[in-house]
Request: fold
Amino acid sequence: MKTIQGPSLHLAQFAADTAPFNSLPAIAGWAASLGFKALQIPAWDTRLFDVGQAAHSQNYCDAMTAMLASHGLVISELTTHIFGQLVAVHPAYDTLCDSFAPPGLQGRPEARTAWAIEQIKLAAMASKRLGLQDMGTFSGSFAWPYLFPFPQRPPGLIEAAFDELARRWLPILDVCEQQGVNLCYEIHPSEDLHDGISFEMFHERVGRHRRCKMLFDPSHFVLQQLNYLDFIDIYKEHIRMFHVKDAEFNPSGRQGIYGGYQSWENRAGRFRSLGDGQVDFKSIFSKLAQYDYTGWATLEWECCLKDQIAGAREGLAFINAHIIPVTGKIFDDFAGAPVSEQQIHQMLGIELQ
Reply:
C-alpha cells in the first residue's frame, strides 16, 4: 500500500485580480505559508499560467518548477475543466459558455470548440514538460438537458450524443497517450459523464482508451444521492485524481435533488467546507489507501456559507488528519513462525506427494 500525497490546493476558486491571488508566485507564497505541499493549476487562468508557452518552452516550465520549489511546493496536476466544457456544448448553453472563450470566438460555436480542443492538447504537452502524469477535465455535455425529459427521449438520442462526444474526445486522448498523460474526467452533474454508467458508455465508445480516467469528487455524489464508497470499489482502477470537497443533502417536503431553482444556500443539496458536510471521508481515505491510490488529495474549496480563506486553512488540517500513513507490517507479525512445506501439509492433514 502507498500513502496518499497531499495536501494539494486547487487554485480555480482562489485566483483573483487582487494580491496575493493574482499571480502564481504570490499565491504560491500564501499557500506555502498555510502548509500546502502542492498546487493544482487551472490551465485556463492566464493570471497564473500560460498554457501555450508551457506546451512549447521547457525553460518556462523549469522556471515555474523552480519558483514553486523555492516555496517548498510542486504542481500536483493541471486542470482543463473550462476547456473541456467547451468541447461539447448543447445550444441551450451557448450564451453562458461563450464567456469561457476569447471574445473573437464568442458566438461561433464550431470555432470555439476547435480552440478548446487545441488548448487541452497544449495542456497535455505542458503536463509532460512539467513531469506530470495526470490532468483533470470536464467532458462537456450534449445530453444533459434531456436528463429527465418530457416528452420522453426519442430512441437513439443518447446514443447519438455519446457517439459525437467520443468522436470529439478520441483525438485528444490520443495526444494524451503521446504525451504519457492520463486525462481524468471529473464525474460531475451537468456533464454527460456524471455517474458510473455514463462513464462506461463513453469509455466503451473511445475503445477503452488507456488514458481515459476519472477525477473523483464525492461532493457531487452526495448531490445526486449516489453511493460514493461503492463507486470507489467499482472504479478504483480508473480513479487517478481526487478532489476533497464536502457537501450535504437535506431533503424536505418542499424540495429534493433538483433544488427548486433555489440559490446555493437554499438548496437541499449544497457544497460545504471540509468537515461541515456529510461526506464520510474516513471511509474514503481508507478505501483509497487500501486500493493503492497513488495520486494527490487536493482541496477544492466550494462552500455556500464559509469564507474561502477559513475554508483553506481548516481544509488543510482536515486533509492532514485524514491521510493514512500506510503500514509496511502486518499487525500480528510478531506471532508468526517459519513453517516448512512439509509442516504445512501436516497442518492440513495432507500427505506430501
Q: What stands out?
A: The radius of gyration is 23 Å. The CA atoms of residues 38 and 238 lie 22 Å apart. The chain has one domain: 5-348.
